[in-house]
Amino acid sequence: MKHADADCVPAVGARSALRWLRWNCSGSAVLLVLQLAYTMYTGRTVTPSAFGAYAIALTVIQLLGYVSNGGLATYVLRAGVLTRPAVHAAWRLGTACGILCFLVVQTTAPLIGTLWHMPEMTPLLRLLGCQFLVQPAATVVIATLRRTGRARTAVTCELAGQASGIAAGVTLIALGWNPLGLAAAQPAAATVTLALVTLRVSARPVLPPGAPVRARQLLVPSGFLAGFGLLEFASTSSPTWMAGHLFGAGATGAYSRAAYFVGLPSQVLFQGLNSAATPLLAERRASDRLVGGRAAEYVVCAASAATFVGFGALCGLGPAALGLLLGPGWELATALVPLTAAGAGMALLCRSGMIIDQTRHASRAVLTTQLTVLSTTFAGIGIAVMEQSLVLLAGAVAVGQTAGHLVQLGGWHRAGLLHTGAALRMHAIHALIGGGLGAAAALGGSGRSPAAAIGYGLACMLPVVVLCALFRRWIPLYAVASAAGILRSPGGPRAGPELTGEGARLAAAAHDDVKDISRA
Question: Can you tell me where the transmembrane regions are (predicted)?
Fold first, then answer.
């Protein structure tokens, strides 16, 4: 790390958060395009049964990833004061845990393959496990860059790493390493990312000095965050594991393809929102301006629009889009898209709410939410097992995440962060828009080929888009974005007519809050 004792982590204001959000969203959009192109290629070269084995192997690796990363990235992002010794300690702890996880995977891979009666999973696990040698260190450094305001550098290095990983996977599959090429993508991506941020002097973040920090001092806070991550992971991955046991590798491949397709935009949106909102929320909490302010409401508003508008549209347009990406032979996967899209959208909303609760150190609230999600999801899985229904299994995630978010709303109302009525009004308006877009797309594409369904679906969505443009002053997201200065006309004043209703309330609050942050 670069020595500059006079320097410190920059303050986070509204403009900084918006600038970071733009960089994160831009990088995420490019990455999403790359991932969709990769999905199109692998959908035509990797069979459903092979992808099913890979999907289960990937969830096992992700489970151990919570141990190797140990919540360290979250700790770095949410640290009140980030110093060089703290980052060095996080790097050492992550590296040690990663080596341990690597050895565990190499040893237990045959046993895990036997557990699912899929011996072809063993080499996939061993190759995927190689990422533990580099991924923890890369994660800590990237989180440090984001925390210190180097969003541009973080996005560039991550994007270059992911692109390199995809290129490595495609090359190996083309050379006949199928499906091992799938497993090689993630280790390659982590290696390139770490190499870029290590070798480029300009990419190294500037941090202030501090008291010495031992790696074991981070075990309690990072382990606490990792434990919550494990609960979250269990709720989202259990359907995949159960599908492997009940329906075999082929059905698991179809389900995992549908879940992966809708999970891509969900993860991309969450990462962008988390990277931009967490530093702002952390600073407002440090200055005692979180309770009674509007920062939490704005985060929920953005997540609400992404969930109900974005994934509502995806429910209608997604089946045709996935069918076009994967080609013939994946009809079961396309049929599951509406349910998996609903689950991914609600997961985005619930996970975004956890950003607020974790930032305000409301550990009990996070634990209550996670346990609610987990218990409700398991109840849905139990019903699916009794009925032997893959459809019910896919719907269990959406039901569990919805229950968790309802618990969050009650907790925020009691804490004075966000009134339940205001949140429900935001959700209702955004859900009305998303439902209209999804229904129009499904109606337009009904009974057509995938390519034609996308074209007709988009055409049928246009009237809904026009109506939204005409009545945009009633849309909560538009109100907040306009008042915060994201939407501006070329002449200078904020774009759009005078806001009314819920939009006016949010706009007035946002305008006052932005002035307050800028003044501070």
Answer: 21-41, 53-77, 89-112, 124-145, 298-326, 332-350, 362-384, 390-412, 424-445, 451-471
CA distances from 380 to 82, 262, 392, 399 (A): 42, 20, 7, 8
For the record, the structure tokens of 496 come out as 């759009």
Q: Burial of 492 by CB count in 10 Å (0-12 exposed, 13-18 middle, 19+ buried)?
A: exposed
Q: Are 343 and 239 in contact (CB under 8 A)?
A: no
Closest CA relative to residue 346, chosen from 401, 298, 406:
401
Name the DSSP class of 206.
E
**Chain-centre distance for alpha carbon 496:** 31
The one-character DSSP state at 217 is G
pLDDT per residue as tens digits for the range 4-32: 333 444 444 445 555 656 666 677 778 88
Report residue 486 as tokens: 């994201």
Of the candidates 511, 520, 475, 517, the residue with the CA atom closest to the CA atom of residue 493: 511
CA distance 114 to 344: 30
CA within 13 Å, CB half, 297: 32
Determine the 3-state secondary structure of 408 from DSSP: helix
- Cβ atoms of residues 319 and 335 within 8 Å: yes
Residue found by looking up tokens 């809050």 in the block = 513
CA distances 164 to 148, 161, 177, 184, Å, are 25, 5, 17, 11
Structure tokens at 326: 């994967």
Distance CA 295, CA 400 (A): 26
Give the residues across from 488 on adjacent strands: 494
Q: Which two tokens stand for residue 182?
A: 């799938």
For residue 495, what pLDDT is reported?
40
Kind plus residue range of the DSSP H or E element containing 493: none
Cα R_g (the chain), whole angstroms: 23
pLDDT category of residue 400 using cuts at 50, 70 and 90: very high
- Residue 479 in contact with residue 507, Cβ under 8 Å? yes
Buried b / exposed e over 440-456, threshold 16 CB at 10 Å, is bbbebbeeeebeebbeb
Angle CA 107–108–112, to nearest 5: 155
Size (the chain), residues: 520
Which of 174, 10, 27, 17 shows the shortest CA–CA distance to 81? Answer: 10
CA 401 to CA 370: how far, in whole Å? 9
As a whole number of angstroms, the distance between CA 311 and CA 478 comes to 18
Q: What is the pLDDT of residues 262-304, one digit of tens each?
A: 998 888 788 777 766 666 666 665 555 555 457 778 889 989 9
Distance of alpha carbon 488 from alpha carbon 481, whole angstroms: 9
Are 326 and 261 within 8 A, CB to CB?
no
- Please identify which residue in the block is written with the tokens 């397709």: 261
Mean pLDDT of 310-317: 95
Does the pLDDT of residue 364 top 50, yes or no? yes
